[in-house]
Amino acid sequence: LQDPNQNQIGQWLDVRPRQGIADLSFQLAAELSLGTYTINVMNPKVSSTFQVEEYELPKFDVFFERPAQIYASDKTFLLRVCGRYHYGKAVQGTMHVTVCQKVRRRLQNASKDICREYSGLTVSKGCFTTSVSMTVFNLAHSEEDSKLYAEASLLEAGTGVQINASRQIPISRTTARAVFETPNAYYIPGVPYRGKIKLQDHHGNGMKNKKVYLVIRFMRRRFIKVYITDGSGRAAFNLDTSAWNSSSVSLEGRFKPEDLMHAPRRTGINYTNAYHQLQPFHVTTKSFLDIQPLTGTLPCGVKQSVQVTFTLNRDDLGEDTSRIGFAYYVTGKAGIVVRGQRSVQIGKLNMLKGSFSIPLTFTADFTPSPSLVVYAIFPNGGVTADSIQFDVDLCFENQVKVSFTAKEIHPGSTVQLQLQAAPGSICAVQAVNERKFLTRPERELTSQMIYGLFPDIYRHGYPTQVEEYSNHCIRSQSMSPLLQGKSQLSIQPDIFNLFWNMGLKIFSNLEIKKPTKCFHRADRKPTMGGPSTEEQRDSMEQPQSTTPGRLQAYFPETWIWSLFSIGSNGSRGVLVTVPDTVAEWKARMFCLAGRGFGLAPVTSLRTVQPFFVDVTLPYSVIQGETFTLKATVFNYLQQCIQIHVGLAKSLDFQV
C-alpha cells in the first residue's frame, strides 16, 4: 500500500485467499496526506487506487430530471429540477434555474450568450417544473453551440442552505429517422428478400400512414419503390432479387424522393435516412432455409423457441429421397453448447415448404453472444445453411441473491440479511449509503465489468494458429492473363463464413466456399464501400444519448463489508443492526464457489424516522468563533405533534 508520495505504508505477505477472495484491512491515520493511494499486487502484477480527500457532506442533492435531450423541431420543452434528501424525501425551497445557449467565442462577430432565467417553489415531490420556449434560442447551424447549458440552485426553506447543480442539454436537429428492421446483411440470389422499414419521430414513436421511399441501387442502376407505413410506423417490403445478378446491393429508406433531405436553412432541421448494404450469398442449391430472429435481450433460464423455415427443391433432393435431415449447432463462451438434428418427411411435390422449432434455454455457458447455425446436406452434394446471433443477458453460473426482510426500518433497528448462493459459496457483501454507491459508477462491480475481463469471448473466427489462408484462385473469363494477380479475400458471404464466424472448424469435400477470383492490384488506394457524401451529411446529425441521473459526490459511509459462508442448503440469514442515521442503503453481493462466480442484483433498504431534528452546522470553526446554529424539525407523520427541542449541555461550547 503506497501513499500519494509513493511511500510504502502497509504490506501483506504470503496472502492466502479464502476460496479466491482475499479479505484485508488497513487503518488510515487520523492525520494523513490527501490524494491518491495505490494498492499493488506483485504476482500477478495488478494495481488499484482509491482517493482520500476532505469532503463536506451536502445536506441534499439537486438533480435535473428532464430533459435528457431537446429537439429543434419542438416549440417548447419541459424542464424539471428536483431536490432530494439522502433518505429519499423531497426538499422544500426555492429553485432558481438559468438556461443559456453559448456562442463560439472564436468568431470575431460573436454575439452575447442567449440566457433565460426561471424560478419558483418546489412542489410536494421536491421538483420545480417549467416550460421553456425554444423560440428564444437560435436553432440554425450558426455561431451558437449545439447544446444548452442549465444551472440550478435550490435554497432550502428555513435554513438558507443552497445546493447547486448543472447540466448540458444537447440539441438534436433530427426531426425524424428511418430504421431498417432487417437482420441479414446478405441475400440469396433468386429468392425474394424481405424486410421492414420503420419511421420514427424524434421521440422514438412510430409514424403511421406516412410515405417511405425505398431506393435500391445495384450495378449502377437505381429503382425507387413507395410504401405506406402501418399503425406501428412500419412498412414491409418484398424484393425480387433475380435482376440483381449476384451483385452488391445498397438499400436506402428515405422520407422524400429528392436527394436533399434538409429543411430550409434557417432551422437546420433534417431527417435521418436508413442505409443497409447487402451482399449475395454464394449458393450451390435451389433450396434454402431461414432462421427467424428473436428480438430484444433474452433472459437466462427461460426456454425459448427458435423457428426455422425452409424451402426445398426436388432438383436438390432427387427422386428417391423421402427424408432430409437438418443439423444445428449453438456456440457460446463454453464452445459448442448445443447440438442436434431435425428430420423432415418429404412429399412428392417439386417444391416443399415447411418449418420446425429448436428449443433453447440460455445459461451462463451461452453468454454473451451465442450463435446458432442450421444446415442441410443434399444427395447431390449441395449445402444450404443459415446462422444467427442472439443478444443474451450477462448471467453467471452461480445464481446468487441478496435481500433484506424489510424495505423500510427505523435507524438503530435490527433486520435480517438473506443470502442465497450455490452450496459452499463464500460471499462478499457490501452495503453502503446510496451516495457512495453512485459516486464512481465506473468502479462498481457489474456484469459488464466481469465479462470485460475476458475480451476473447467476444471474438469471432479462428485463432491465428488455425486460420485458413488460400492462395488458390480462379481467373475470370473476361480477365487478361497479363492482369492476373494474387488472390484476394472474398467478402461475399458463403457457407464457410457462417461457420468461420462462429469459430467452428469444417472438414468437408463439399463446395462450401466461394472461389476467389484473381485480379491485378492497382497502385491506388482501395476504396471501402460506405455512404456517399450526401449520406454522410444526412447521417451526421445523430441524437446524443444522455442518461438522466444525479450527479453524486463521494460520501464515505459504509455499513457492511464482510465475508459470509453459505451452507449446504444454499442460503443463510444474518442479523444486522442498521446505523443510527436516516439514509437509503444499497447492498450487493458477489460469490465464489466450485460452481463459479455469481453477482447478485442490487437491493435497497431505507431507514426512516417519523420525525427528527436536523442541525445545520458550518464545515469548520475556529476556537472562540461565534456562529448561529439552526435546527430544523422534520415531521413525516400524518398528523401534527407537539415536541420540545433543546440543546444538550456541553463543556465544548457556550450558548
TrEMBL record:
Residues 558-647 form the Alpha-2-macroglobulin domain. Pfam families: A2M (PF00207), A2M_BRD (PF07703), MG3 (PF17791), MG4 (PF17789). GO terms for molecular function: endopeptidase inhibitor activity. Residues 521-549 are annotated as: Disordered. Residues 289-439 form the Alpha-2-macroglobulin bait region domain. It comes from the Eukaryota. PANTHER family: ALPHA-2-MACROGLOBULIN-LIKE PROTEIN 1 (PTHR11412:SF182), MACROGLOBULIN / COMPLEMENT (PTHR11412). This is Alpha-2-macroglobulin-like 1. It comes from Tinamus guttatus (White-throated tinamou). The lineage of its organism: Eukaryota, Metazoa, Chordata, Craniata, Vertebrata.
